[in-house]
């Protein structure tokens, strides 16, 4: 069974930090790009960051310089370190795995940033 377990969300004040984790199972993790997406209330889901199987990295413009994505293949885990959080970062964050002709989504973890 394919699973992507996201965790690490919570309530934090503006300027604070959180680290999200996405633990995968049920597929060949090393062969997949892993992305973080988020969906704020009343808005469409947007891509936040992605790390390829070859560790190529991309970020959406609004998080550049504040968020860092990394992966540890031995742990089948991708992290999203989020610093200098802003109220506009408030959203449910989802991880996604894409590769080998397949695409998987995990459940979300809620990040709330208070002003």
Distance between the ends: 40 Å
Kindly state the number of beta strands: 11
Largest sheet: 7 strands, mixed
- Beta percentage is over 45%
Low-confidence segments, given as residue ranges, are none
Radius of gyration from the alpha-carbon trace, in angstroms: 13 Å
Mean pLDDT: 97
**Helical segment tally?**
0
SSE pattern: EEEEEEEEEEE
Question: What would you say this structure looks like, in words?
Answer:
The protein has 115 residues and is mainly beta. Helices cover 0% and strands 56% of the residues. The chain has strands spanning 3-7, 10-13, 18-25, 33-39, 46-51, 57-59, 67-72, 77-82, 91-99, 102-105, 109-114. Strands 2, 4, 5, 6, 9, 10 and 11 form a seven-stranded mixed sheet that branches. Strands 1-3-8-7 form a four-stranded antiparallel sheet, with no helix packed on it. The protein is globular.
Write the layout of secondary structure elements.
Elements: E1 3-7, E2 10-13, E3 18-25, E4 33-39, E5 46-51, E6 57-59, E7 67-72, E8 77-82, E9 91-99, E10 102-105, E11 109-114
Parallel strand pairs: 2-11
Antiparallel strand pairs: 1-3, 3-8, 4-5, 4-9, 5-6, 7-8, 9-10, 9-11
Keywords, please?
seven-stranded mixed sheet; 115 residues; single chain; mainly beta; 56% strand; globular; 11 strands
Nutshell version of this structure?
With 115 residues, this protein is mainly beta.
């Amino acid at each position: 069974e394919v699973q992507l377990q996201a965790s690490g969300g919570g309530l934090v004040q503006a300027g604070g930090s959180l680290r999200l984790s996405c633990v995968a199972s049920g597929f060949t993790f090393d062969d997949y790009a892993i992305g973080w997406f988020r969906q704020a209330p009343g808005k469409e889901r947007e891509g936040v960051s992605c790390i390829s199987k070859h560790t190529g990295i991309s970020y959406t413009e609004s998080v550049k310089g504040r968020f860092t994505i990394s992966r540890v293949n031995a742990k089948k885990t991708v992290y999203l370190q989020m610093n200098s959080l802003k109220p506009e970062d408030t959203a449910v964050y989802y991880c996604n795995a894409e590769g080998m002709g397949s695409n998987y989504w995990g459940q979300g973890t809620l990040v709330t940033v208070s002003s």
